[in-house]
Design goal:
Blueprint lengths: L1 H18 L11 H4 L9 H14 L1 H4 L8 H4 L11 H6 L2 H10 L1 E3 L2 E4 L9 H13 L10
Antiparallel strand pairs: 1-2
Helix pairs in contact: 3-8, 7-8
The structure holds heme C (HEC).
Length: 145
């Protein structure tokens, strides 16, 4: 009797996970979000704010340089992306990064990446984080050139 009950709830759980819109494999921003442009111009001030917010919120998973080697990232459900990879960055639009940072990513009950709408409530601050994320892909200046 109780065995049948257990299987019943398992079936419900399976059905629920099948309809979850945000499976980790398809973390895709809606088209209208993808095409949004960053309204914040690059400036030393904006980048400094973006860097500050990145260090406070993102570094623990993404690592200081964006390699995905932060202490929490290594033990997460899924390792973070390597944001220093220019090819990876080229595939992301500013609007998509903004949307991903704002809404985060969950896989059922697991938080893969937190949503930052609350921690970083001002849109313009999240756009500054996007500006900073873009600098992670820049190749470091070569001393010989
Ligand atoms: C708890 C760990 C964690 C924190 C904190 C975190 N992230 Fe992530 N992030 C991830 C993981 C894991 C992925 C890869 C998810 C995937 O692609 O399935 C990711 C992916 C990304 C991506 C790439 C998305 C893509 O499609 O390639 C960007 C950009 C990003 N994070 C930015 C940020 C920023 C900016 C912050 C801070 C505001 C942040 N993340 C905080 C774990 C984290």
């Amino acid at each position: 009797m109780s065995g049948a009950g257990r299987w019943g709830s398992l079936a419900v759980a399976a059905a629920c996970s099948a309809v979850l819109p945000l499976a980790a494999q398809d973390w895709v921003a809606p088209p209208e979000e993808r095409t949004r442009l960053n309204p914040i111009a690059v400036s030393a001030d904006a980048l400094q704010k973006g860097r500050f917010l990145y260090r406070k919120n993102c570094q623990r998973c993404h690592g200081e340089k964006g390699k995905g080697d932060g202490p929490s990232g290594r033990y997460g459900v899924k390792p973070p992306e390597d944001l220093t990879n220019p090819a990876k960055q080229a595939k992301l639009t500013d609007g998509e990064i903004f949307w991903k940072v704002s809404t985060g990513l969950r896989d059922g009950a697991d938080v893969i990446m937190p949503a930052y709408k609350r921690e970083i409530p001002a849109d313009e601050d999240r756009w500054k984080v996007v500006l900073f994320v873009r600098t992670l892909a820049l190749p470091p200046p070569s001393p010989n050139r």
